[in-house]
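cron nightly-structures :: item 1 of 1
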Amino acid sequence: MYMVTVSVEKCEGCEECVNICPNSVFKMTDGKSDPHQSSECAFCESCLGVCPSGAITISEM
């Protein structure tokens, strides 16, 4: 199981992670990415590759 976090300070609100995630881990909340379904993360790392600001962190629980 993985824990996905997004730095609100770094997130630019581009929605790239929302669009690329195959498991719908992310949604937009107040113009920022929100990993509301972190438990669905399969560690495919797609979001890490598209985030222009490096706001996303994935760690194993």
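cron nightly-structures :: done
The longest helix spans residues 16-20.
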